[in-house]
Design goal:
The complex is a heterodimer of chains A (236) and B (440). Chain A is an alpha/beta fold. Chain A contains seven helices and eleven strands. In chain A, helix 5 packs parallel to helix 6 (142-152). Chain B is an alpha+beta fold and 440 residues long. Chain B is 33% helix and 25% strand. Chain B is built from 16 helices and 16 strands. Chain B has helices at residues 6-12, 23-36, 60-63, 66-79, 92-100, 113-118, 129-138, 143-147, 151-158, 160-170, 202-219, 252-265, 302-313, 329-332, 338-344, 351-354; strands spanning 44-47, 51-54, 187-196, 222-233, 238-249, 272-284, 318-323, 333-336, 363-370, 372-374, 377-379, 385-386, 391-395, 409-417, 423-429, 432-438. In chain B, the strands form five sheets. In chain B, strands 9, 12, 13, 14, 15 and 16 form a six-stranded antiparallel β-sheet that branches. Chain B has a four-stranded antiparallel β-sheet with strand order 3-6-4-5. Chain B is elongated and about 120 Å long. The relative contact order of chain B is 0.07. Mean pLDDT of chain B is 83; it is low at 345-353. The chains are: A alpha/beta (236), B alpha+beta (440).
Chain lengths: 236, 440
């Protein structure tokens, strides 16, 4: 019984039919580079997935959450793809979008308060859109999410749902879920779920931020200026 | 039962509903069906009052066999609510006779034809009652019995008509058909069997009209861009429902989906008793050849999807962005028709290059939000820390004080950040501090 020598661990690991847990799952589906090398290294397939649903859970607005996606969206738009924003919380500002490399004439904005999930599903399933970003209702249920995921399957679409960080512990059918939080020097990404080995530590990315970060501008004394005062009138 | 008196029929079946036969409407229905048949073959012939002949010999390869094309035609008829008696035969007359006898069979080879016809009753060809009675008196009940007799004798006794018909049916004599001419303009009406009170109920009836439209477009090699569905109400008034397609199409399913979206939003003023569909803008189908290695993506495409969303949500809800040269942030972004963008396919926008390279946020609040001001400056989820010098925007004197415009603005804009790391674009004017954008 003991005559057969047990093979060395290295030999076992070299076998083709041994799957190592630390190897990220092979994603045959297409991905698009996110524009951030550190993030690409963490994402299965080396970029934002196309053909699956991605959930981004932002803790707050205005922390650089859209800037994170802009390199990928600009690439899609530059290739002639259509982008759609479904029920964005504010109006996209055309010149800023254009400056970021998105073609405004192929950036569809859908302003609706109802049937947001239906719109997303139609846009994703149409196969004509390269990127669909949706801001669904707070109470979107798992069944609807599953429908969206099924609609995205096999189509070259970068489908993103923006959800509140409050649902981080709620299960979702989206294969990639990332929570976004502000960090001291950029944006902190916590990959809650991905295909393959779970991510261990959060990732901090430097997303482009406006203005001159480093120094505070010595402006007028705001506190002294009150609306209606002569000084305010002078400023205005 | 043919030949039965109405009173007898009513006595036997008191719940019977009696309808007057209307030859004009029958003819119109046949014409519409002939239009719809344009999808299957370009050579369609009318066989009034109730027959339609489709020459399918040239289309077998396209549809993948005779069974496939028969199935497709019968399904199309069924979807429009017609029940069909059909037959396939090498000669038009034989096909008509077989169909009228309810044979529902496919006879492909010419040498099987006499056998197939032999079992038909002498009443099947629809000869005059006198001829049928005479054949009856001869003891001839089947067409096969007739075929066995010498032609010259039959001609003497029955006249030339029936004998020539037999020869045509067997293919011994050519039988050219008059082709149905697809009309120059498409406009077809449909009276509904009962009044329709709910808009959704019109979708089924609309199917018939759209099937006819699709067939007509197909046979004329055209695409429709705009068509109008006119609803005639029972109070004599009528209303029009224009259907505008994002890109010209001849696809019946797509037209129907668009119709359903429109009907879903429509409330009827009065019950509808008739529909009329007219193709307003028709363009010639641009020729294109398929790629050898097609990389088709499953789905309907961007234009069709946008068109459906616009139908359901309203045109104002689905827009693309456009840029306008203006210093006031609220005025630089305008909305534009996405379908116009599909049609024109402009090159990369050159306007972006003309805008000055300044710091602008990705999100703009539709209306600036007033911010509280404390001793240490403006507050938005905590105190805001100003990060740039003031950028003075002063413009718009020409529409100061007018309703619905941004008006004359004089503002100092700053990039600011609060303790939670939220980046905002704020301004100060005579009224105080306002939040106007987010650097998302």
């Amino acid at each position: 019984m003991n005559a057969v020598p047990s093979p060395a661990l290295a030999e076992v690991l070299a076998r083709g039919d041994i799957w190592r847990g630390d190897a990220l799952a092979e994603r045959p589906a297409a991905t698009i580079p996110s524009g951030h090398a550190e993030l690409d290294a963490e994402l299965p397939g080396g970029g934002w997935p196309q053909g699956t649903l991605t959930e981004l859970l932002a803790a707050r607005d205005g922390i650089g959450e859209m800037s994170l996606l802009l390199p990928a969206l600009a690439r899609l738009s530059g290739e002639g793809g259509w982008l759609a924003l479904v029920a964005p919380p504010w109006l996209p500002y055309g010149p800023a979008c254009a400056a970021a490399g998105l073609h405004p004439e192929r950036l569809v904005v859908i302003r609706t308060a109802r049937q947001i999930a239906w719109c997303c599903e139609q846009l994703i399933a149409s196969g004509g859109f390269a990127g669909v970003l949706g801001w669904p209702e707070r109470d979107i249920d798992a069944r609807t999410l599953r429908r969206l995921q099924v609609a995205a399957e096999g189509r070259p679409v970068f489908a993103v749902l923006w959800r509140s960080v409050a649902v981080a512990s709620t299960p979702s059918p989206a294969p990639l879920r990332i929570a976004l939080e502000t960090a001291a020097d950029g944006l902190s990404l916590r990959i809650l779920k991905r295909r393959g080995r779970p991510a261990s530590r959060p990732l901090t990315l430097a997303v482009p931020r406006p203005g001159r970060n480093s120094r505070v501008v010595a402006g007028p004394l705001f506190s002294a200026v009150r609306a209606g005062s002569p000084a305010a009138a002078a400023v205005a | 039962m043919p030949g039965q008196k109405l009173s007898t029929a009513l006595g036997l079946a008191p719940e019977l509903r009696v309808f007057e036969r209307d030859p004009a409407r029958e003819a119109a229905a046949l014409t519409a069906l002939a239009c719809a048949a344009g999808r299957f073959t370009p050579s369609v012939s009318l066989a009034p009052p109730d027959g339609l002949l489709l020459e399918i010999g040239g289309c077998l390869r396209l549809f993948g066999g005779v069974e496939a094309i028969v199935d497709a035609v019968r399904t199309a008829c069924g979807e429009q609510g017609w029940s069909t008696d059909w037959a396939v035969a090498p000669t038009p007359l034989a096909a008509r006779w077989l169909a009228r006898a309810g044979a529902a069979r496919i006879v492909m080879a010419a040498d099987e034809l006499p056998g197939a016809l032999a079992s038909l009753s002498c009443a099947a060809p629809g000869w005059s009652a006198e001829v049928v009675a005479r054949l009856e008196s001869f003891g001839l009940r089947r067409l096969g019995d007739l075929a066995a007799l010498p032609t010259a004798g039959l001609r003497q006794r029955l006249g030339n008509g029936p004998v020539d018909d037999l020869l045509r049916a067997r293919g011994d004599v050519p039988d050219p058909q008059r082709c149905f001419v697809f009309p120059e303009r498409f406009a077809t009406a449909l009276e509904l069997p009962s009044r329709v009170e709910h808009a959704e109920g019109l979708a089924f009836a609309g199917q018939r009209l759209f099937a006819a439209l699709a067939g007509w477009l197909h046979s004329r090699q055209a695409l429709v861009r705009v068509c109008t569905l006119e609803l005639r109400h029972d109070d004599g008034s009528s209303s029009a429902l224009p259907l505008r397609l994002g890109e010209p199409s001849a696809d019946e399913a797509r037209l129907l989906r668009l119709l359903r979206e429109h009907l879903g939003r429509l409330t009827l003023q009065a019950p509808v008793e008739a529909l009329r569909l007219e193709a307003d803008e028709v363009i010639a189908r641009p020729g294109d050849s398929g790629r050898l290695f097609a990389e088709a993506v499953a789905g309907e495409g961007a234009a069709a999807c946008l068109e459906r969303l616009r139908a359901r949500l309203g045109e104002a809800a689905v827009q693309v962005l456009g840029l306008r040269a203006d210093y006031r942030p609220e005025c630089t972004t305008v909305t534009a028709d996405p379908l116009a963008a599909v049609a024109s396919r402009p090159a990369a926008s050159g306007q972006a290059a003309q805008m000055p390279p300044v710091t602008r946020p990705l999100w703009l609040l539709p209306v600036p939000q007033p911010l509280a001001e404390e001793a240490d400056g403006p507050h938005w989820h905590g105190p805001l820390h100003l990060l740039t010098r003031a950028e003075r925007l002063e413009s718009g004197w020409w529409d100061g004080g007018e309703e619905g415009t941004a008006g004359d603005v004089r503002r100092d804009y700053f990039v600011a950040r609060n303790r939670q790391g939220q980046w905002a674009w704020i301004f100060r004017d005579g009224q105080g501090w306002f939040l106007h954008g987010l650097f998302a």
